[in-house]
Amino acid sequence: MSTMSQRSHLTDSEAWRVVGRLEGGQTQAEVAQAIGVSQSVISRIWNRFLETGSAGRRPRQGRRRATTPNEDRYLVLTARRHQNMNATLPQQHLRSATGPTISTQTVQNRLHGVGLVRFGSGRVLVYGGISIDGRKDFYIIRGGPLTARRYRDEILRPIVVPYAAAIGDDFILMDDNCGPHRANLVEDFLFEEGIVRMEWPACSPDMNPIEHVWDAVGRRVAGHQPPPQTLQELERAHLEEWDRIPQLVINSLIDSMPQRNFWSEAMTERDGEDIASLGRSISRYPGYLRDGDMKELV
């Protein structure tokens, strides 16, 4: 057995390449053979990614971090969802959601740690939906911000209602707690249509499996060479990569929901139902960038 095959750990960059191969449709056995490690190493990396959203190894004991992994993910999602912002906004959002006060330098460190840096303005706002053995096409929001009325008229009525009818009585809608989603007119509409919505605890974005799909799409788009140079190219790249995410990956993310954090009991009680996750993702051009060599991409 070679020295390489005896390795029990991979570097963080190697672990992310493993995730990329699995997202691309390769089996764990194929990836293990290509990387030169045992399949148990590949399985451990994949399970870690499904549970935490990160492929990297958990940090060793040392100086206590100012934020928890959950709070780190909350900061990153806040940064991705707001245009023309600085480190103060995610700092304020986190304090409102969970109570702790952290420095803007800590916010910048967390964003830089996942490859996000500040660069200009402009954005693409897209919506997508996933469920076991299915997904909805991207819908691109144009012509201004998404209001509660637009959410009802452009997303729920033409997209979600027919999708729910096709699935049947077991349909459950998962969306996040942003303002337009929770407006009274949206609540009234869902009640009138008989659509059941899953309730979310505060500050729990990592529990929605579609957030991990957005991450996968973002990593794939970040690998485009040359990178998108216009908003139209950015839209097209995201549409292409959304369609290329293997359905097996989406199914695995949804199946992993009972393992996520403190809400596992409530999730497990819904095992027999078909949960459809609906979410939004903002990609900025130039905006917040992913990876140092990217010029116009989140």
UniProtKB/TrEMBL annotation:
<dbReference type="InterPro" id="IPR009057">
    <property type="entry name" value="Homeodomain-like_sf"/>
</dbReference>
<dbReference type="InterPro" id="IPR038717">
    <property type="entry name" value="Tc1-like_DDE_dom"/>
</dbReference>
<dbReference type="Pfam" id="PF13358">
    <property type="entry name" value="DDE_3"/>
</dbReference>
<dbReference type="InterPro" id="IPR052338">
    <property type="entry name" value="Transposase_5"/>
</dbReference>
<dbReference type="GO" id="GO:0003676">
    <property type="term" value="F:nucleic acid binding"/>
</dbReference>
<feature type="domain" description="HTH cro/C1-type">
    <location>
        <begin position="27"/>
        <end position="45"/>
    </location>
</feature>
<dbReference type="GO" id="GO:0005634">
    <property type="term" value="C:nucleus"/>
</dbReference>
<dbReference type="InterPro" id="IPR036397">
    <property type="entry name" value="RNaseH_sf"/>
</dbReference>
<dbReference type="InterPro" id="IPR001387">
    <property type="entry name" value="Cro/C1-type_HTH"/>
</dbReference>
<protein>
    <submittedName>
        <fullName>Transposable element Tcb2 transposase</fullName>
    </submittedName>
</protein>
